[in-house]
TrEMBL record:
Name assigned to this protein: Uncharacterized protein
Pfam family, one: OrsD
Disordered: annotated span: 383-431
UniProt cross-references to InterPro entries, sorted A to Z: OrsD (IPR022698)
Highest taxon, organism lineage: Eukaryota
Length: 489
């Protein structure tokens, strides 16, 4: 019976009369039933006793706390939309009135403010100022009232009469236009980025690049290669790579950097005669000044990075061709060939760089490699014969003088072990003495530089690696951004 007459609001710990649509204090339930609903004394007393047994209800009338503001409307109570909320002072006053007369009394008594500061006739300027101040002093809100009188009978400000926050106001037309433009630009950038990630290099990209791209022929050589693969081929190896291939590349990378530092230190400590001979470019001419060690440590590191990237490119492509390594590529990798001497020097360097646990017992036999066609006009550069130690160039191209094939050019494990023993015993050697790894790097780089091309520049692995370095993070490099060791403006 009591549930049909009253509904409790647990959040405020009060009860609401369903017929009267206002709150009733627990101590006043019996009197309310007798006066408002004509219940007999015995029935009203029993209902009052039952209500006092309810949980989540504050039985002490003095302890009931009614907040000045709630978010959502309270059940059963009527919600009036035309209340006036005081906006005087900071922090703002939470007083809510149902009409302007009550609000004016509140302003005079609580805030000591009135729209008219004096009696009598008011000028137009003062009247305008008073009206503006009046508009700033209140705002229209929705309100509810729980108790009709007594403590807690104030009007409660209802922030969201509809039960949910109102939608945000639409932005000004100028902001809408700017947002539309920004959305179009963002969508365009995302579409272009996705297209660039999926696109491979095309031979006709030379029409959209810097002028010297047509002369270098990078786009023709790298046709069909994914740009992301070009960046991964020349990136620095991680600090502690789990892949044995990347461990070997890291060893070569560090050895090349140490070789550059050691070369710089050697030039600084050599005599003038040796520096003069090192600066000689032609046999019959004497240089007018010796070789100068003018670079600081930062410049040396910057200039040697290009050589480190060249060796990293060769190592990753050679490992991929041999079916080694854990990297997955987006497409085909650049192809190139090596002369017999370059292949022999590379095998020595690679055997020294490979970790002992991952090093094969002997050089692996490979089937005949496919002829390497760079692009129309380049011809076949190199073929590998059935003998793993012999290499020959087809049509007389891609081989330096003196690189005629000879038997037994493969690298035996005994040579590698001998070089390692030399390196292990190098702890007592002078600081200027190169390690076997550094010497192998130097000899392989010399072979790269010593190659003569007969039909086309891309017969050289070094030229192929330089083409890969031509692609940067934002596209083709220009003369100003290309690695300085391979370009002099």
């Amino acid at each position: 019976m009591e549930n049909e007459l009253f509904q409790k609001i647990p959040s405020l710990q009060v009860i609401i009369c369903r017929q009267c649509k206002h709150g009733v204090r627990p101590a006043e339930v019996e009197r309310h039933l007798k006066r408002k609903h004509q219940f007999k004394h015995q029935s009203a007393h029993q209902l009052a006793q039952a209500v006092q047994q309810w949980e989540d209800i504050e039985q002490d009338s003095a302890a009931i706390q009614i907040p000045p503001v709630v978010d959502n409307p309270l059940p059963i109570l009527p919600c009036e939309p035309s209340g006036l909320l005081c906006q005087r002072h900071d922090p703002l006053c939470h007083y809510v009135a149902s009409n302007m007369g009550t609000m004016r009394n509140h302003w005079r008594q609580v805030h000591q403010w009135s729209q008219q500061t004096r009696r009598g006739r008011v000028g137009q300027r003062e009247c305008t100022q008073g009206a503006a101040e009046l508009r700033r002093s209140f705002t229209t809100v929705a309100w509810q009232q729980i108790f009709p009188s007594g403590p807690g009978s104030h009007y409660i400000h209802i922030r969201f009469p509809e039960g949910h926050p109102p939608p945000p106001p639409p932005p000004p037309p100028a902001d809408q236009a700017q947002r539309a433009v920004d959305a179009i630009i963002t969508a365009w950038d995302q579409a272009r980025t996705a297209q660039e990630q999926q696109a491979v290099i095309q031979a006709d990209w030379i029409t959209d690049a810097n002028p010297w791209l047509r002369r270098t022929g990078w786009a023709r050589y790298l046709e069909g290669v994914h740009p992301q693969d070009l960046l991964r081929l020349v990136e620095a190896p991680p600090e502690e790579p789990p892949d044995p291939i990347e461990q070997a590349i890291q060893a070569i990378w560090n050895a090349m950097g140490q070789l550059a530092w050691r070369s710089q230190q050697t030039v600084q400590r050599c005599g003038t005669g040796i520096c003069m001979e090192a600066a000689r470019t032609e046999a019959g001419q004497t240089p007018y000044r010796p070789l100068q060690a003018y670079m600081d440590e930062t410049s040396v590191q910057k200039h040697v990075q290009a050589w480190q990237q060249v060796l990293g490119f060769i190592a990753r492509t050679q490992a991929t061709q041999a079916g080694q390594g854990m990297q997955e590529w987006c497409g085909p990798l650049p192809v190139y060939g090596m002369t017999a001497r370059q292949q022999r020097k590379w095998q020595i360097l690679w055997q020294l760089a490979m970790p002992t646990m991952a090093r094969p017992q002997q050089a692996p036999h490979r089937a005949r490699a496919r002829a390497v066609h760079m692009f129309p006009g380049a011809g076949r550069i190199l073929e590998q014969g059935g003998n793993p130690g012999s290499y020959r160039a087809t049509e007389g191209r891609g081989v330096s003088p003196g690189d005629q094939p000879t038997a037994g050019h493969g690298v035996s494990p005994e040579h590698v072990e001998e070089a390692e023993e030399t390196g292990n015993a190098g702890s007592t050697e002078p600081a200027w003495m190169m390690s076997p790894m550094e010497r192998a790097c130097l000899e392989f780089c010399i072979e790269l530089l010593n190659q003569r091309h007969r039909a086309h520049e891309y017969e050289s692995p070094l030229v192929c690696a330089m083409a890969v370095l031509g692609w940067g993070e934002t596209g083709w490099r220009d003369p100003d951004s290309y690695p300085p060791p391979f370009y002099r403006g």
